[in-house]
Write a structure and sequence with these properties.
247 residues; mainly alpha; Helix Hairpins; 2 domains; 2 strands
């Protein structure tokens, strides 16, 4: 036996006969709706906490990006200073060696044209020649030092490349997280709908142009985020299936 709702609405102040099982069923439905409403509120609180955690992670990621950029600038500055110092030292030593060789050549020419000063010039030649090994040894040492510095430069360049890769990946993650955050919509219960209907609704991305929820996500081939080996990893973009709007 069902409740005669028309009679109830017509005479709401009077008593009406209602089958006991109908009342039990009605109470069971009310209890079920209350449980679903409690579950919905719990999930809303969980979703809110997750959103706050995502915002905190975004702030931390942006701070890390700033630190990485600063480290990159410092490394590039050190590169420039080190290359300048090495080039200056190498040029100075080469100049000294060329001067020494020029003096030896000059003394040898004078030796050939002046027998009277042969002994004195010979001594000077021997002195300069005796300095050549030490000069050459110093050049060798500096050459070795230069090789070591070049090796260090290569290591620093490798480190910089790793940092740049990390920066690209972190930027991609940040963009993805921002995209998810902007598309994220909390489930809301409005007075016009019941708690069960509100609980059953799923969050959806809405087209900003026409309001359609039929959205598909594809790779944005115009935006390469980074490379995994030889494979390009692209940013994502959404397309409305109804109006074709891309966002």
């Amino acid at each position: 036996m069902n409740i005669d709702w028309a009679s109830v609405e017509a005479k709401p102040d009077k008593s009406h006969k209602v089958n006991g099982q109908v009342l039990l069923d009605l109470r069971a439905k009310v209890n079920s709706y209350e449980k679903q409403l409690t579950i919905t509120r719990t999930e809303l609180e969980k979703t809110t906490n997750e959103l706050n955690a995502t915002k905190t992670k975004l702030t931390t990621t942006e701070t890390d990006l700033s630190t990485i950029k600063e480290e990159k600038e410092n490394i590039e500055k050190k590169f420039t200073e080190l290359e300048s110092t090495l080039q200056s030292t190498k040029s100075s030593l080469e100049s000294e060696l060329n001067d020494g060789k020029a003096k030896i050549t000059e003394l040898e020419e004078k030796l050939n044209t002046s027998a009277a000063t042969n002994t004195e010039l010979q001594k000077k030649i021997e002195t300069l020649e005796s300095e050549i090994p030490s000069k050459q040894e110093k050049i060798n040492e500096l050459t070795n030092t230069l090789s070591e510095k070049e090796s260090q430069l290569e290591e620093l360049k490798s480190f910089l490349a790793e940092k740049e890769t990390t920066l690209i990946k972190t930027t991609a993650q940040l963009e993805e997280m921002k995209s998810k955050l902007s598309a994220f919509k909390l489930l809301e219960i409005s007075p016009e709908i019941g708690p069960v209907e509100a609980f059953q609704r799923e969050e959806r991305v809405v087209c900003p142009m026409c309001g359609e929820t039929a959205i598909k996500e594809i790779d944005d081939k115009s935006k390469v985020l980074y490379y995994s080996g030889t494979k390009a990893i692209y940013a994502k973009k959404k397309i409305c299936k109804k109006c074709g709007y891309e966002f």
